[in-house]
Amino acid sequence: MKNDTLLVHAGRDPQAHAGMVNTPVFRTSTVIFPTLASYQDRKSHGDKFVRYGRHGTPTTYAFEEAVASLEGGYKTAAVPNGLAAIVASLTAYARPGAHLLMPDSVYTPARRFCEGRLASWGVRTEFYAPRIGAGIAGRLTPDTVAVYCESPGSQTFEVQDIPAIAAAAHARGIPVIADNTWATPYFLRPFELGVDVSIHAATKYIGGHSDLMMGVITANETHWDAIHKAVDDLGYSVSPDDCYQGLRGLRTLGVRLRQQMGNAVEVARWLERQPQVAAVNYPALESHPDHALWRRDFGGAASLFAVELRPEWGGRVQALVDSLTLFGIGSSWGGYESLVNLVQAGASRTATAWTPAGPVLRLHVGMEDPQDLIADLKQGFSAAAS
Ligand SMILES: *Cc1c(COP(=O)(O)O)cnc(C)c1O
Q1: Superfamily of domain 254-385
Q2: For 15-44, how does the pLDDT look when each residue is reduced to its tens digit (9 = 90+)?
Q3: Residue with CA at minimum distance from ligand 1 atom 10
């Protein structure tokens, strides 16, 4: 089945729920059993057994099943937020003496978890150049427990050659974990590229309305037990209300992404032509150094990219941001509305330098009319220049 059909049908079983189109919200902690034997007999109930609320309810399972089928993975675990998905997936492989490979472009809280908590557990993290590709083979050691990818890189948008990285890692029996939040399950089929564990901040496009915090971890059959156990050990669970919102977001993921990608390309192309702009870092643009790689592996592009302004804008960038009226100033992205934020990605790098021409803005393009967004940017540039 194609993605658009899956978005409509995955995780739904109306006849199991009195004909209701959407799987209802099942709230519970305790579940009552008719006999002690039926309570103890976990095996015969299969995957959808609900014995205690922390492990999930029919609403949780419907959401997890929908994500697993979109991702093309074996099973999915819903967790409280995107960072929890990162923490659980890395915890699954953490042991004293372990070596972990992380891209230098990684989401900063993931870096902090590695440098702090994981280091205290005896895990040594090595940060690698995101465009390393097959060269990752030279970094693998007998203690390497996982290679982590995030493509494109948080804030800097380098696209990683995941198939090449996975081939090298798999040759040594090492799993690949990938944060695919930007691409969403709609624009990337991670397991077809060789990823073993795929994570998303469902907070972003899956939720899609800036009102949900959730994460998902999907694994192939080989790695599911390790992931499931880590999620269990960490005590993560997600409310059925949030899973309901996640399912609701999924139903419109395709139309939202197509619309937002179209808008983002239009805004990015306009920005590229402005004299105030040194570069637009957006893999969907032909000018991006990884455009061909993006085209090969992705089915589309999220509406999130970075704009490098010319150096002389260093003193005016604050005025520019403050004068925008349609771009909200705030964290996160993936909702229906446009956002702007200042990027300081170079600051946290340890393995590679990232030296933009001038100040860098990250734009999230929403579903507004792109011509209105362009007009807003245009008036922002003139207001800040005067
Ligand atoms: C936002 C984000 C996360 C964290 O998600 P939260 O739900 O905010 O915890 C993880 N990875 C990437 C790439 C993100 O953009």
Answers
A1: Aspartate Aminotransferase, domain 1 (3.90.1150.10)
A2: 999 999 999 999 999 999 999 998 888 776
A3: 82
